[in-house]
Amino acid sequence: MDLRELAVNTLAQNKKVALLIGGAGVAVLGLGLGYKYLRKPEKVVRVGVVSQILIHPLKSGKAVSVALAECQKIGLKFGELQDRHWLVVTDDGHMVTGRQEPRLVLVSLTCEGVQVCLNGPNMEELRFPVKQPDNPVIDCRVFGADIQGRDCGDEASRWLTRCLGAEKTFRLVHFEHQMKPRRPTEIEPLFPQYEQVAYPDVGPVMLLSEASVKNLSSKLEKDVTVERFRPNIVISDCEAFDEDSWEELQIGSVRLQRVMSCGRCIFTTVDPETGIINRKEPLETLKSYRLCKPSEKHIYKSSPLFGQLHTVEKTGILQVGDVVYKISR
After folding, report:
1. CA distance linking residue 123 with residue 128, whole number of Å
2. pLDDT of 98-108, one tens digit each?
3. Tens of pLDDT, residues 277-300
4. Residues β-bridged to residue 319
């Protein structure tokens, strides 16, 4: 092959490469433009306002009302307080909730600096460190799922046992960030596989509107409050049960995705002010008008629906007074 042929062949090869690169570039550009124009833009609609933010540090314990909170994938956080990160267990590690011990709703767990503060009716306040690395880690069971918790010590155990007035011994455990969390999908398959929680029943965030609670109260002899239903985010300036149709929400810098309704149980019949369980209302009234569709009975069975469970798609800060926006496409 002489010099001229070599030059011609090289030029031809370069043209092919240039055409291939150019074609690929056009294809990528076309895909980009196609995605841009085929993807529906987000539609943002104002649907309400955040009226309360409630963190329940102790599962089944009193709520702590805060003005703002950090919304993490695993739930709400304010300082050292994290939602459902403390749990009462039996000696063999099984969870104890207000279903078994209704007086648990009267127990308050708060934090001051790096100290946990336990308070209850006719009990002296007990304080102990949030972090107790020398205490043993206990294997616990929450709705049949395995999870760990750091034992909070014998003094906390004696305090809880006296406060609840039970013959059996109770212990308090704390979920720490390095521990293996539970997967909600093991209980409710509607949750994504990657979702994780500490000690909540199922989801990391529960949302309820004031109007829904007012609607229920109008059907009862005695009004109920939002605290009875243990939501994390309470919404005002909307109609009753509007929250049932909010699939995706933007609140402050937080993006939430609805997964399912919250099926209600006997715990709703515990009065949060007295710690007395009546085992009837408001559960019976809810069952009279808030049952699921027949096509959803395999999910909710006979539990009435009240409030919505969400996952956290985008973490951030939310505050009381934040406008709530429904996102649709």
Report:
1. 15
2. 999 999 999 99
3. 999 999 999 999 999 999 999 999
4. 68
- Helix, strand, or coil here: 19? helix
Q: Tell me the sheet residues that pair with 112.
A: 115
Neighbour-count burial for 36-57, b at 16+ CB within 10 Å, e otherwise: eeeeeeeeeeebbbbbbbbbbb
| Residue in the block written with tokens 């109920």 | 224
The two tokens of residue 85 are 């990160």
Task: Give 198's contacts (C-beta < 8 A, 6+ positions apart).
Answer: 74, 75, 82, 84, 85, 147, 175, 181, 182
Strands 233-236 and 205-209, sheet pairing:
parallel
Going by their DSSP bridges, the two strands 233-236 and 115-119 should be labelled as unpaired
Single-letter amino acid, residue 286: L
As given in the structure block, the two tokens for residue 246 are 């909010």
pLDDT for 99-147, tens place per residue?
Answer: 999 999 999 999 999 999 999 999 999 999 999 999 999 999 999 899 9
Per the structure block, which two tokens stand in for 148?
């760990």
Q: Give the Cα-Cα-Cα angle 158, 159, 161 (nearest 5 degrees).
A: 65
Tokens 């206990």, residue?
138
How far are the Cα atoms of 253, 257, 259 from residue 42, in angstroms, in the given order? 16, 14, 19
